[in-house]
Each structure stands twice: as C-alpha cells, then as structure tokens.
Design goal:
The chain is an alpha+beta fold and 62 residues long. It is built from 2 helices and 4 strands, in the order βαββαβ. The longest helix has 5 residues. The N and C termini lie close together (6 Å).
Length: 62
C-alpha cells in the first residue's frame, strides 16, 4: 500500500516549499512547477499539503 501524490499544475505557483519540506524527496521542480517525480517514496506525512499556500497538492492512500 502506498500513496497517490498529485499537483494541480494550474494552481501551483512554483514556490518550491513542497520540495524543501518533503522528508522523502518526492518533489522536483520541472518547468517552474512542482512535479511529484518520486511519488513512490511518499511517506503520507502530508507536510507538503500543509505548506502549500495554493492548495495545489493532494495526497491520498492507494
């Protein structure tokens, strides 16, 4: 069992806060936006959800 991580690219402003806060290094910046490139590493802590001021990130259990 793992976690589904998605970033709404229309809401993301590319601040990089999720990249900085994620303990599992799930996120990378791609074309100025956050990309959950390593979503399989997600721990489900939702630190990224809490720090995202644009409410662009969703983490759900698989």
């Amino acid at each position: 069992m793992g976690w589904n991580v998605s970033v709404d690219q229309d809401k993301c402003v590319g601040c990089g806060e999720c990249v900085d806060v994620c303990p599992a290094q799930v996120y990378e910046m791609k074309d100025g936006k956050s990309d959950p490139a390593n979503y399989e590493e997600c721990l489900g802590c939702e630190s990224c959800v809490e720090v995202c001021s644009q409410e662009a990130i969703t983490v759900t259990e698989e």
